[in-house]
Write a structure and sequence with these properties.
heterodimer; A: 258 residues; alpha/beta; Rossmann fold; 9 helices; 34% helix; B: 390 residues; TIM Barrel; 13 helices
Chain lengths: 258, 390
């Protein structure tokens, strides 16, 4: 991991590979489980995977409290590094950040790939689109999160203290940005028509945190998007099926038409 | 020393029907309002009796639980502000990081202070972790919200020249103007429950009175020491009246009677920690190190080890006996002499304190027994205790 400064903000950032730029925005949890996926992406792309402020070794400035702070930060990152025609990939909470970026400025973004993204509310006030992960017993949470929790999830009991508190810190940061309204911005849906960039909406077929139906509804509201299910995968398909997700992104990046 | 009688107004008739959680997820169909009304009235009667016995009154609040049916601590206080005439009224208290409207808190407290003609003591509470879900407040910046609400409430109570502006991080008002102004000047005494040396220091730096609950023989000394140290460093006198300790108290004509009463009051300790584990440690509520430990143990054991005997043995609150509770310093029980002796030993062990928060009713202790417990305490123990810490 290296460190970069974007203005006053100091971020921990993973970079790997050479090629056209791919900015990966991680979800709320399980960053440590992304190694295989990053390795796979690095064969073709220059992978840039920052840790969001408040996550990992990235400091959260006092004023960073809302999802749009992260969106503007990463738009600044693209400007400062003069990155062009970027493939923007966002998973879960990171997909929400990516959408918030795209409704604001598409200048440096060539393609958008969403993986089990949150950020939008479809149902009525008494319907819950996104499972309340904070109200589930830990075993049920893992069952809903992964196709195969036994291989995908870390063995929490065997983590060392540093790893365990790092996960706790990531979870606290996710809560800070996404607690209420829960994992969405009520105003975002009405601006999705601004995401005028080729978009791939990927979804784990077995995601029972945010069901594939949510992804299909999201896909229909994006001007130029297609939907693709990833089999034998839950909410983080890039952890459970890294090759399948990386292949899907490559096909999508090469395609002349969606 | 001042003594305060505290009860959580438990709705214990539902307890036998509850399983692995006594909080958050339990359906209110288990609450019968007719039984609930009888219970509210008897608990209020017991507090009203305290006015005659010379025991001060303490209320608290919890949410979505059968262990504490007092979900708004100012409501019984509002009733008691008129029903009582002499004793002081401590609400310990309002979870101001979980309430969305601090001005409303200032108004409620100021109104009770005026109706009671200046007898209110106002508590500001962080709240236990399982209060987050019912309030749906963000656990990751809870304490930041707590301190901003604290500052705003005190300023609102102390400002008497018309509206002022407040555009903070969490609360926004352009015309803050609280009526009535409180009876006590500049504001009623401020309390905060604390459970760690760190929060004791934060309270000491602001001159608050700390209520220390359920920390017992092993954990209390470090908390008081942190308070005294910070108080000295910040030039505020750490007088004994800034330190309070809560104990379950069962007193009887015989040791057997006192222990029997304590055993029933212990229903509080045996039930109040039974919570579905997913609500025990919301993200950001505790430090990353503490939460990391909870993660490694699947949340089980996050609060384990909180009750210890004097020889360092972990005591499971669910099965705690009276002897365990006395040993752990959580209960003082037996004859009036026993209770006084245990209290004095604890007092000496922790370096002294000025308030005894007496849980004189808890769990299953019925009205008749509660009246007997409070009355005997007031006759045989209170006169001696009042002389301690003069």
């Amino acid at each position: 991991m290296e460190r970069i400064n974007i203005g006053e903000v100091s971020l921990e950032m993973l970079t790997a590979g050479n090629g056209p730029p791919l900015l990966f925005l991680h979800g709320g949890d399980y960053f440590a489980q992304h190694q295989e996926f990053f390795g796979r992406l690095a064969r073709r792309w220059q992978v840039i995977a920052p840790r969001h402020p408040g996550f990992g070794g990235s400091v959260r400035p006092d004023g960073f409290r809302a999802i749009h702070d992260l969106a503007y930060l990463y738009l600044d990152l693209l400007d400062r590094q003069d990155l062009r025609d970027v493939v923007l990939v966002g998973s879960s909470f990171g997909g929400w950040i990516a959408l918030e970026m795209c409704v604001r400025c598409l200048q440096r973004i060539g393609r958008l790939a969403l993986i089990d993204s949150v950020g939008v509310k479809f149902g009525g006030r008494e319907e819950r689109d996104i499972v309340d992960v904070y109200a589930l017993p830990s075993a049920e949470l893992l069952e809903r999160m992964f196709f195969d929790p036994a291989t995908a999830a870390p063995d929490f009991a065997r983590l060392d203290d540093g790893e365990a508190s790092s996960i706790a810190r990531d979870r606290a940061a996710t809560a800070l940005y996404g607690w209420r309204p829960y994992m969405h911005n009520p105003g975002l849906r009405q601006w999705l028509h601004r995401v005028r960039v080729p978009t791939l909406v990927m979804w784990g077929e077995n995601d029972r945190i945010v069901e594939p139906d949510y992804g299909e509804r999201l896909c229909r509201l994006l001007p130029s998007a297609r939907f693709e299910l990833i089999g034998q995968a839950g909410h983080y398909p890039q952890i459970e099926r890294p090759d399948d997700v990386a292949d899907a992104i490559e096909r999508f990046a090469r395609a002349e038409v969606l | 020393m001042k003594v305060w009688h505290f009860s959580e107004m438990a709705y214990h008739p539902a307890w036998p029907q509850l399983g692995e959680s006594y909080r958050v997820i339990i359906p209110s169909r288990l609450y019968d309002p007719k039984i609930g009304a009888d219970l509210y009235h008897r608990y209020l009667d017991e507090w009203a009796l305290c006015d005659e016995l010379g025991i001060n009154i303490m209320t608290n609040e919890h949410h979505a639980t059968a262990t504490c049916a007092d979900s708004v601590c100012t409501i019984p206080m509002a009733i008691l502000a008129r029903e009582t005439k002499k004793v002081r009224l401590l609400a310990l208290g309002m979870p101001i990081g979980n309430r969305n409207d601090p001005i409303r808190v200032a108004e409620e407290y100021a109104t009770i202070d005026v109706i009671s003609r200046g007898r209110l003591e106002m508590g500001f509470v962080k709240g236990v972790p399982f209060e987050i879900a019912p309030a749906n407040t963000n656990p990751a910046d809870l304490m930041e919200r707590f301190w901003e609400a604290h500052d705003l409430i005190l300023k609102a109570m102390m400002s008497h020249d018309g509206p002022f502006n407040w555009e903070g991080t969490h609360f926004h008002y352009r015309q803050v103007n609280v009526w009535p102004r409180p009876w006590q000047q500049p504001h009623p005494p401020v309390w905060m429950p604390v459970g760690s040396p760190g929060s004791a220091s934060e309270a000491a730096a602001r001159g608050m009175t700390i209520g220390v609950l359920n920390t017992g023989w092993m954990r209390t000394p470090a908390i008081y020491e942190a308070y005294r140290k910070t108080a000295a460093e910040t030039g505020r006198p750490a007088t004994l009246d800034k330190l309070a300790y809560m104990a379950l108290i069962g007193v009887g004509e015989t040791r057997e009677d006192g222990w029997r009463r304590a055993d029933q009051i212990l229903g509080y300790s045996r039930t109040s920690g039974i919570v579905a584990p997913q609500f025990m440690n919301p993200p950001g509520y505790a430090s990353a190190a503490q939460s990391g430990q909870a993660l490694k143990t699947s949340g089980a054991g996050f609060r384990a080890g909180r009750i210890q005997s004097r020889d360092g043995r972990n005591i499971d609150p669910r099965t705690m006996s009276v002897a365990d509770a006395i040993d752990a310093g959580l209960a003082f029980a037996g004859t009036p002499d026993d209770v006084y002796g245990q209290l004095l030993a604890f007092y000496d062990h922790v370096g002294g304190f000025g308030h005894l928060l007496m849980m004189g009713q808890g769990g299953l202790l019925d009205h008749k027994e509660t009246v007997a417990n409070l009355t005997l305490f007031s006759k045989e123990v209170l006169p001696r205790v009042e002389d301690v810490a003069g």
